[in-house]
Specification:
It is a single chain. By secondary structure, the protein is mainly alpha-helical. The protein is built from four helices and two strands. The protein has a two-stranded antiparallel sheet with strand order 1-2.
Length: 127
């Protein structure tokens, strides 16, 4: 990977905002920001079809030639609900990425520090 990825701070489980930041950076390094935005939008849209959406306030938008995101305020707090929402997003994204790239991108994401500490593994059996 070409760019330096953010690393995990000292807390045992980072807030969902930090995990999303790691996910965005990891995907963008491998796939580019346009593809990252498209895949995350697609995954979020699929999940928003469910009854109550924990993704309200999560926005991905184009800013000039790049893409940026805005997260719900609750995702910046250390609380279980946003972490569970992030795990749900990861589950949806896993299916999309597996269909497009097999396990190549998922393995790259598993190598990023921070996800394992939150109990998130992109490849089944990765520990």
């Amino acid at each position: 990977m070409s760019a330096t990825l953010p690393t995990l701070d000292d807390s045992p489980v980072p807030p969902a905002a930090r995990l999303f930041e790691l996910l965005w950076a990891g995907l963008s390094n491998v796939l580019g920001s346009a593809t990252t935005a498209t895949l995350l939008r697609r995954s979020i849209k699929a999940l928003e079809a469910s009854a109550s959406s924990p993704f309200e306030g999560l926005q991905i938008k184009r800013v000039g030639l790049e893409y940026a995101y805005e997260l719900p305020p609750a995702w910046h707090q250390h609380s279980p609900e946003p972490i569970e929402a992030f795990r749900t997003l990861v589950g949806e994204l896993q299916g999309v990425l597996t269909g497009l790239t097999g396990e190549v991108v998922l393995r790259a994401l598993d190598r990023i520090g921070g996800f394992a500490e939150a109990g998130i593994h992109f490849v089944q059996g990765a520990r």
